[in-house]
Structures are given as structure tokens and as C-alpha cells.
């Protein structure tokens, strides 16, 4: 049953390589998990999702728990990522949206005016009781494996709300940002508040760390990111910082933004594969990094993949801390056995002293 009392953390979490790396402490091995590990590349995932809609599965604590555990059982990764979606909290407060297979989130009535923004309710824990229940069950099941909670950052979630669906250019979103700064500010504050509460619900129920996904921030010039987006992400990260768990902040195509994204205040900055990790380390400030093997390398011969993984691990030794990951999500057609070999390679790679 759900309760408002935070569970006592499992004592084995103190030895977690994932949490140690996030805090910049020495690790026994480079910790590894994968964005989208709990998704379509696993046959056991496809089996339990048969005939169940994406949002429906996110609102069913038993199913959410099972799907979150699947990649942990299969790969023995160093962290579980909570199975949900960045638009789930909007759905929970009553925004009419769906996640369509092969397309992504689609919003029935896109947000365009101040009245549209003001019509979106703030998130309360009651809206997402099923999240609390699933996280509590997972925390018990996972024992010494940390659960990573997550939310979408204000810009990336705003893009779905304003465009009404997935977008390459984010043209309407940026038009609002440039042309109606008061509406933009209200929207970013609204989504930021929802994101912060969504993360807090997960942490209060037992999540050991959180990731704030600003997947589409790479669409912005640095000055615009700094003026219109970073302060809102920073507010979300500061609110969660008060709960004392490590915070990861990730975006795609953010080579130019790694400095300001680091300054938004996370403990760890996620890096996609387009930026060499050694360059990223210089840009994020005194923070840990996460990444950044090209997700397509999992389709290469095993020895090619592991040679490139070794380069990523070696580069990561110069960082304050390093969590191994792909540069973006697992591609649905990925061979799970190859991901299992990659996981074992990273976890058994002999570490030299930190540079
Ligand atoms: O990482 C995990 O395995 C945990 C679960 C998770 C999902 N979405 C499940 C999902 C997480 C962390 C997300 C985050 C998310 N959702 C992001 C940020 C991460 C990123 O990839 O940059 C974004 C931008 C979204 C929005 C969204 N939801 C997209 C782009 C899609 C994919 C559309 C498609 O089908 O190609 C979704 C749907 C979605 N979210 C699926 C899953 C497993 C597929 C739905 C299905 O199986 O029917």
C-alpha cells in the first residue's frame, strides 16, 4: 500500500557503483545502465505489452514494476530506470494526450495561449498514486540496485505540448519562446513545477537518483538556451537537490550546451555520442559525466563494439565520475545478447587509477 513515509534505503545501496560514480567517489567498476533499457528491444517486454496501451501500462503498478525489472534480470545493469514516460504526469493531471506506437506523444489540443497554460492543473501526489505504489514495490524488489526516477525537462515537454506531437524543428515552440515570452515563461513554470513534483514523488517513494531528460535542448543556440530554458531546468534541479539524491541531466546534440547544462546544477551531465567524452569532461565543469557509446555500435561485431567501449571507459577516467551508457536510447532492433556482452565487458573492465 502507498504511504507518505519514505522507506528506509536498503543498506546495500551504500555500495552501489552507480551512486558512487554519480557522487564522484571511487568505484569498483564503471557502472552501466542504458537509456530505453526497459523498452521495445526485449521480447519479454513485447510479451507483457501485448494488447496493453503505453499509457495504460504506465498506470498499472504491477506492469510498471515487471517491465522496470526485466532489463535488471537480463543484464544485471547497475541501475534500474523507472518505466514510465516524460508525458505521463501531463496525462495524470488531465491533459488529453496519447502515446501512439511508432509515433510518440500526441496532444489533442496543443497549448498556444496563456489561457491554455492556466488550464493545466498543478501535479499532486494523488494524481500519480500508481507511481508511488510502483516505486515502493520496486525499491523493495531491487534491494541493492538503485532505482533511477526521471522526468522530462521543461523545454522538451513544452515541445510536445505546443507542437501537439513529435517535431524536428520545434518551430511553434520556439516561435512562442521568441514571440510571446510571457506565455513561454508561464508554460515553463507550469511544466517545471509538474516535473519537480513528479520527481519528488519518485524520490519520496524510494528512488535513489533522478534523471532530467532535456532530449531536444540541442535545437537551441547557447544564448537562447541560457535565457529561456536553463533557469527553468535549474529550478527543477534545485528543488530535487533538497531531497539529497544525485541528479543527472541529459540532452541530445548538446555539444555547445554542455557548459550551461552543467551550470543548471545537476551532479552528472549526460553526453550523446557526437561529442568525444574527453571534450565533454572539459565543458561540464567539476561534475560527473554519463555516456556515450554510439547506440549503433551495438550492431557492429562484438570486438569492434567492445574496443570502442574501452575507449569510452578510458576517457571517463579523467572525469570526476563516469557512468557508462549509450549516447541515446537503445534502438528497438538491438540484439539483447549483444547488450548483455557489452554490460559484462564494462563491469569487468580493469580500471586504472583515475587521471
Ligand atoms: O528508458 C527506459 O527504458 C524507461 C522508460 C522511458 C520511456 N520513455 C518508455 C517509452 C523513458 C525514460 C522515456 C523518456 C522519454 N519519452 C523521452 C526522453 C528520452 C529520450 O529518448 O530522449 C522522450 C523524448 C519521450 C517521448 C516519447 N515516448 C518518444 C519519443 C517515444 C517513442 C516513439 C516511438 O515509438 O518511436 C515514446 C514512447 C515510449 N516511451 C516507448 C517506451 C518503451 C515505446 C512505446 C511502446 O512500446 O508502445
TrEMBL record:
Site-annotated residues for Transition state stabilizer: 85
Gene3D superfamilies: 3.20.20.210
Assigned keywords, A-Z: Cytoplasm, Decarboxylase, Lyase, Porphyrin biosynthesis
Record PANTHER family: METHYLTETRAHYDROFOLATE:HOMOCYSTEINE METHYLTRANSFERASE RELATED (PTHR21091), UROPORPHYRINOGEN DECARBOXYLASE (PTHR21091:SF169)
Quaternary state and interactors: Homodimer.
Function of the molecule: Catalyzes the decarboxylation of four acetate groups of uroporphyrinogen-III to yield coproporphyrinogen-III.
Record-given protein name: Uroporphyrinogen decarboxylase
Amino acid at each position: 500500500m502507498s504511504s507518505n513515509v519514505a522507506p528506509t534505503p536498503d543498506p546495500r545501496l551504500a555500495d552501489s557503483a552507480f551512486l558512487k560514480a554519480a557522487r564522484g567517489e571511487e568505484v569498483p567498476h564503471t557502472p552501466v545502465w542504458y537509456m530505453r533499457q526497459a523498452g521495445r528491444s526485449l521480447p519479454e517486454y513485447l510479451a507483457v505489452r501485448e494488447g496493453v496501451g503505453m499509457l495504460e501500462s504506465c498506470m498499472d503498478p504491477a506492469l510498471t514494476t515487471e517491465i522496470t525489472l526485466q532489463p535488471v534480470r537480463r543484464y544485471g545493469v547497475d541501475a534500474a530506470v523507472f518505466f514510465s514516460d516524460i508525458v505521463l504526469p501531463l496525462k495524470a493531471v488531465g491533459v488529453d494526450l496519447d502515446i501512439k506506437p511508432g509515433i510518440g506523444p500526441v496532444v489533442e489540443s496543443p497549448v498556444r495561449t496563456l489561457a491554455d497554460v492556466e488550464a493545466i492543473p498543478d501535479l499532486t501526489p494523488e494524481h500519480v498514486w500508481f507511481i508511488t505504489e510502483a516505486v515502493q514495490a520496486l525499491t523493495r524488489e531491487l534491494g541493492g540496485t538503485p532505482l533511477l526516477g526521471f522526468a522530462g525537462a521543461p523545454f522538451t515537454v513544452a515541445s510536445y505540448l505546443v507542437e501537439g506531437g513529435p517535431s524536428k524543428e520545434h518551430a511553434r515552440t520556439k516561435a512562442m519562446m521568441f514571440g510571446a515570452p510571457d506565455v513561454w515563461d508561464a508554460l515553463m513554470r507550469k511544466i517545471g513545477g509538474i516535473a519537480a513534483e513528479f520527481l519528488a514523488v519518485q524520490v519520496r517513494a524510494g528512488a535513489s537518483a533522478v534523471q532530467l531528460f532535456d532530449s531536444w535542448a540541442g535545437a537551441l543556440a547557447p544564448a537562447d538556451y541560457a535565457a529561456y530554458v536553463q533557469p527553468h531546468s535549474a529550478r527543477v534541479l534545485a528543488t530535487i537537490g533538497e531531497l539529497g539524491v544525485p541528479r543527472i541531466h541529459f540532452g541530445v546534440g548538446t555539444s555547445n550546451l554542455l557548459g550551461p547544462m552543467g551550470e543548471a546544477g545537476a551532479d552528472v551531465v549526460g553526453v550523446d555520442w557526437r561529442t568525444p567524452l574527453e571534450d565533454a569532461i572539459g565543458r561540464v565543469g567539476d561534475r560527473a559525466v554519463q555516456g556515450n557509446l554510439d547506440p549503433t555500435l551495438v550492431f557492429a561485431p562484438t570486438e569492434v563494439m567492445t574496443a570502442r567501449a574501452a575507449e569510452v571507459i578510458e576517457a571517463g577516467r579523467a572525469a570526476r565520475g563516469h557512468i557508462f551508457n549509450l549516447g541515446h536510447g537503445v534502438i528497438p532492433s538491438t540484439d539483447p545478447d549483444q547488450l548483455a556482452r557489452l554490460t559484462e565487458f564494462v563491469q569487468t573492465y580493469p580500471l586504472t587509477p583515475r587521471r
